[in-house]
Amino acid sequence: MLEEKRKTVTERLASPDIRDEFGLETMDMNMGPQHPAMHGLLRLILELDGETIVRCDPIMGYLHRCQEKIAENRMYPAVIPLTDRLDYFANMHNEHGYCLAVEDLLDVEIPPRAEYIRVLMCELMRIASHIPSIGFLLLELGAFTPILYAFRERERIQDIFEAVTGARMMFHYIRIGGVKADLPPEIPEKIWNYIEGLERRIQPDFIDLIEGNEIFISRTRGVGKMTPEQAVELGLTGPPLRCTGVDFDVRRDYPYSVYPELEFDVITDDAGDVEASYRVRIREVWQSIRIIKQCLEKMPEGEVMADLGRRLRPPEGEGFGRVEGPRGEFAVHVVSDGSDVPYRVHYRDPSFVNMQLLQEIVPGHYLPDIMPIMGLIDPVSGGWDK
Amino acid sequence: MAISLPEGSLEERLRRYLEGLSGSHGLEEAGIEGNVVRVVARPEDVPAVLATARERLGILHLSFITVVDRGDGDFELTYELLDLRGGRVRVRTNLRSEEPVIGTVTHIYPTANWHEREAYDMFGVAFAGHPDLRRVYMWQDHFDHHPLLKSFEISTKRTFEGLR
């Protein structure tokens, strides 16, 4: 139906005669950059025919810091705190991706305990990103309670992060060659207790509250509908790709760290709309809980940092790191010229690439459907603007 | 589902990709390293190489495009392709020009649209045939620089200068 609607609109507008005859005119409207419901600083130029969107043109760069240029003027370890500021809902994944790229360049072995701690932290981070993103989606649909529940969970995870790393958001915890420090002795038990409680709370606090709600269904079912072909063509990764039924997960298909030793399922859904992306996200939280439990059980004792010397001077060449962030594939390409400063660092951020679907998918929808579609992509300003 | 993801063992697939790519184009270099097929092509062949990868070999995903400025108008472009099942193809090309131009791949991989816009914005590499080659981060008017070029100096160059 959406296809038809879109076709009629485009056909109508393509014919100048009809336009003159009926006095049809489209209206340009700015949405953002300062918009209460927008995910960060993003300006959308919308061309509207009545309330139907004909064209959507995202304008980015309001938070552009040129991280890649700054990284070219810092020594290798000093880039890690900068990567925290990329996608600030997936700090651990950014650090992990960058460290994997530099370790690829250096060709070093990481102590197994450090690998487990990294995976543990990344999965906690994924929960702390997926649950608030569901909260944001519902907040934008007018429901205020889920965001409070979501932030209750995020706060508790941040407390764990604070105990482990000393910071609540900008961690600088994953280092080249390992992690900064071992887990404090009481932390494994604290994490275990927390995720046991979370596992019990997901069903009543999120799934029962959201799924089946009439308003939620009418605002999200069939909205942002895409086919697997479209999703693959647009280069989507993460939940926006998996909600169309293409099962691709970097953790399974391009394994890194200790993921090959862990058991988990890749969650997919066939509907390919906003509701499906919500379902994928909430079910991935369960898989993250599974991974965290296995990590805590299997974690070996030992060192958490490889000895790399005081000054890092990777050999000439290039390194690649690729991790599955909460929003999709986060890849880092580091080029070295043999000095202690990277010659070039390139980040492939999932928010940036996934946002391309705004141009393709949004036309044909009504204006209020923009916000659920933003909830499908769940972009983060620091991510798309680098 | 209409998307067909590749099947079979990884080594076999990588060999197939290498044969498929090196058979049809005059490549400067081609080889397998780990699970990566590394290919060096002439700039004018890049769209054709990627078209072969997408249409004949069925590699679905373009992960990113990296430009490296080697100074004096020497640019290195890396196209990283994933088959979504463990195989990687890395197409590399060298552009030697003060005003670099290379053919677009947006008609083969539509996702390249914003990657190419970013490369244009940051390095001034023009992509011939691109449908919408605007800057993506910097402002469009009255800004004539390309910030990631090595010739673009920033004021706080080299912190830690005293340490080295």
From TrEMBL, chain A:
It catalyses: a quinone + NADH + 5 H(+)(in) = a quinol + NAD(+) + 4 H(+)(out). InterPro entries: NADH_Q_OxRdtase_suD (IPR001135), NDH1_su_D/H (IPR022885), NiFe-Hase_large (IPR029014). One of its GO terms (cellular component) is plasma membrane. It is a peripheral membrane protein. Residues 141-307, 312-386 form the NADH-quinone oxidoreductase subunit D domain. Transmembrane segments: none annotated. Pfam families: Complex1_49kDa. NDH-1 shuttles electrons from NADH, via FMN and iron-sulfur (Fe-S) centers, to quinones in the respiratory chain. The immediate electron acceptor for the enzyme in this species is believed to be a menaquinone. Couples the redox reaction to proton translocation (for every two electrons transferred, four hydrogen ions are translocated across the cytoplasmic membrane), and thus conserves the redox energy in a proton gradient. This is NADH-quinone oxidoreductase subunit D.
